[in-house]
Amino acid sequence: MPRPSKYPEQFRKDAVDLVRSSDRPLRQIARELGVNHETLRGWVRVTERAAGGGKTDELSADEREELRRLRGRVAELELEKDILRKAAAYFAREMGR
After folding, report:
1. Considering the entire predicted model, what is its pTM?
2. Is 1 helix (H, G, I), strand (E, B) or coil?
3. What is 18-86 written as a DSSP string?
4. CA–CA distances in Å: residue 32 to residues 8, 10, 18, 23, 70
5. Where are the domains of the chain?
6. CA atoms of 30 and 12, how far apart (whole Å)
7. Taking the C-alpha atoms of 50, 53, 54 and 58 in order, what is their torsion angle to the nearest 10 degrees?
8. Counting beta carbons within 10 angstroms of the beta carbon of residue 29, is it exposed (0 to 12), middle (13 to 18) or buried (19 or more)?
9. How far is 44 from 20, CA to CA, in rounded Å?
10. What b-and-e string marks burial along 30-69, b requiring 16 or more CB atoms within 10 Å of the CB?
11. Per residue of the chain (97 residues), what is the pLDDT tens digit?
12. Which residues of 6-27 are buried (b: 16+ CB within 10 A; e: fewer)?
């Protein structure tokens, strides 16, 4: 169970709003507020996830199709690599005789 925050909820919300609305670096804002920059970054991430903003894990149909195609190509290349590795080992043994 995470420990309770020593910062009030309203302070955290205001800090995140400041980061979003400002063009200043997050580290500078954290320094001015007297908060560790990673703590502030965590608050921003949590807020973005809760709001559905930020990075999403959902892929478009085109991206899913490309991913499927690329995974198939990777599997094909790995099979070819294994065949070539076995062939190289076979010929190395034959040359050593």
Report:
1. 0.51
2. coil
3. HHHH--S-HHHHHHHHT--HHHHHHHHHHHHHHHT-S------HHHHHHHHHHHHHHHHHHHHHHHHHH
4. 17, 17, 11, 14, 46
5. 9-51, 59-97
6. 11
7. 100
8. middle
9. 8
10. beebebeeeebeebbeebeeeeeeeeeeeeeeeeeeeeee
11. 677 778 999 999 999 999 999 999 999 999 999 999 999 999 999 998 888 755 556 778 898 999 999 999 999 999 999 999 999 999 999 998 7
12. eeeeeebeebbebbeeeeeebe
Tokens of 86: 């076995």
Which among 4, 44, 55, 49 is positioned nearest to 21, based on CA atoms? 44
Contact of 43 with 12, CB cutoff 8 Å: yes
What 42-47 contacts at long range (C-beta under 8 Å, 24+ apart), as own/partner pairs, is: 43/12, 43/15, 43/16, 44/16, 44/19, 44/20, 47/13, 47/16
